[in-house]
Amino acid sequence: AGSSGINAEYGVERQEDEEGGFNREKSKEAQAEKIAEQEWKGGNRRHNTGVKGVKEDARAYQRWILEKEQKRIDDLAKAASRFSLQEPDKGELSDLEDDDDEFMAAYRQKRMQEMKKIVSPVFGVLTELTENTFCETIDAAAPYTDVVVYIHENHIAACRRYKEMLPRMAQEFPHTQICCIKASAAQMSANFIQRGLPTFIAYKAGEVKSTWINIREFIGDDAEWDVLIENLQEQRILPYI
């Protein structure tokens, strides 16, 4: 009897299934929705009477719908904000508001760069490797970090020349670990020492990413800084910055 009273008061009709039988679950859902509509802004609201009352009810119900939709939008906005490092500034939004695709591409790229700065370790100094630390250094590096190893011997003039540039290289490419090791310490063959030096090898995630053997064959024994860096980038030894 109590259920029938609520149904009658809020105008909820019995819900029937496809076979014409009473569907209790659908009836409950319809009843709850009707009650929510009638009890907008809290409290038990009854129907107004007369033309003015009906119009007021219609306007009030419309306001309730708008408030409910606005709350849903606000909740979605709050949820989305948790997945960004920081909200784009107003200048970015105003400049790109007419081109959502371009804005989103630029925004994602900016956030990726910020994330890379956060997660990438900073080195900035040259690391001298030995036979014992060579494999350890490569294996211990983060999977997203490039490890560049310069293989040399002091008695070769070109090796000495390019080794002098390594400290500067470490400073200008701080997110790349710049290392060096003597070929003899790395147990390279005498033939390789004679014909293959100086050599650069880039590692990533413990694997060889790229090699540049006997660089003096390409740039000579005393190339300038800019020439060396340009070629290292072309050989995928160093990243473009």
Write the layout of secondary structure elements.
Layout: H1 2-10, H2 24-38, H3 50-81, H4 90-96, H5 100-119, E1 127-128, H6 134-140, E2 146-152, H7 157-163, H8 166-172, E3 177-182, H9 190-195, E4 199-204, E5 207-212, H10 216-219, H11 225-234
Parallel strand pairs: 1-3, 2-3
Antiparallel strand pairs: 2-4, 4-5
Written overview of the protein:
This protein is of the alpha/beta class and 241 residues long. 51% of the residues lie in helices and 11% in strands. The chain has 11 helices and 5 strands; from the N terminus they run αααααβαβααβαββαα. It has helices spanning 2-10, 24-38, 50-81, 90-96, 100-119, 134-140, 157-163, 166-172, 190-195, 216-219, 225-234; strands at 127-128, 146-152, 177-182, 199-204, 207-212. It has a 5-stranded mixed sheet with strand order 1-3-2-4-5, sandwiched between helices. Strand 4 (199-204) and strand 5 (207-212) form a beta hairpin. The radius of gyration is 35 Å and the shape is elongated. The N and C termini lie far apart (77 Å). The model is unreliable at 1-19 (pLDDT under 50).
Rounded to the nearest angstrom, the distance between the terminal CA atoms is 77 Å
The computed structural class is: alpha/beta
Q: What oligomeric arrangement do these chains adopt?
A: single chain
* Major pleated sheet: 5 strands, mixed
Sequence of secondary-structure elements: HHHHHEHEHHEHEEHH
Rg, nearest Å: 35 Å
Strand order of the largest sheet: 1-3-2-4-5
